[in-house]
Amino acid sequence: MIRIVVLWMTLVWSMCPKAETLLVVGDSISAGYGLDKLEEGWVALLQEKLKPRGIEVINASISGDTTAGGLARIDALLERVRPAWVLIELGGNDGLRGLTPTQMSANLTAIIEKALAGKAKVLLLGMLILPNYGKRYADMFQRVYGDVAQNAGVGLVPFLLEGVGGQDSMMQADGIHPNRAAQPILLEQVMKQLAPMLPAKTAQGAVMAPPAATK
After folding, report:
1. Which of 64, 79, 80, 165 is deepest in the core (most CB within 10 A)?
2. Which DSSP letter does residue 98 get?
3. Is 105 tagged catalytic?
4. 35 has which bridge partners?
5. Which candidate, 205, 97, 112, places its Cα nearest to that of 153?
């Protein structure tokens, strides 16, 4: 009898719809560095927005991470999470450390290729580097995101901190990390590009099934 119940519960569980997952692989901008509560960060706000649609957001962001660090851990993350979407917010620390844009491009490309091989849709979140690193380096750094996204055929947010970077009222004292007031703006930047990648939904919020084929 117990075996029958266990088998029945297993069958019912397997038939229940499972939440799809969205994986964020980023650095301190996505890890909520400097915020009083992680719930204030844009990734947490994204989870709040997508939860009613049955999408679970997994934040695998680490403060100080580089594109090389992201590449080193992406295989394990993809295996564990098996995401339907991957958001990549890396590269800022590469720029701050003066690492070569060529290597940064190669790392981002490799991360994207691995995510695509796992059947995930990918959105790349771009950054700019401070001009005091030199115009030539800053220009090369900025071009990486557009070139990588175009070559890989994935979505792109050209500059995640658009409307935030350089605004004292939106930045923490270090001038690098966005403050609490900036987080909804970051979310808006992401959603502009992410929304078309998500399943359609009705006005009531239910996910719409694809139309039945007609003969």
Report:
1. 165
2. T
3. no
4. none
5. 112
Complete DSSP assignment for 101-135: HHHHHHHHHHHHHHHHHTT-EEEEE-----GGG-H
Catalytic residue, chosen from 27, 30, 94, 177, is 177
Tokens matching residue 193:
């590009």
Query: Which one, of 48, 85, 119, lies nearest residue 195 by Cα?
Result: 85
- Which is nearest to 42 in space by CA: 191, 196, 203, 212? 191
* Rg, C-alpha atoms of the chain: 19
Encode 22-61 in three state secondary structure: EEEEECHHHHCCCCCCHHHCHHHHHHHHHHHHCEEEEECC
**CA 150, 152, 157, 158 torsion-angle sign:** negative
Would you identify the CATH topology of the domain 19-195?
Answer: Rossmann fold (3.40.50)
Cβ count within 10 A of residue 152: 18
Tell me if residue 30 is catalytic.
no
Q: Virtual CA dihedral for 168, 174, 179, 183, nearest 10 degrees?
A: 100
* Integer Cα distance of 207 and 55 in angstroms: 11
Question: Tokens in use for 80?
Answer: 């564990």
**Where do the domains of the chain lie?**
19-195
Predicted local confidence at residue 130, as pLDDT: 81
The catalytically annotated residue of 28, 30, 61, 105 is 28
94 is catalytic: no
pTM attached to this predicted model: 0.86
pLDDT in tens, 88-143: 999 999 999 999 999 999 999 999 999 999 999 999 999 999 888 899 999 999 99
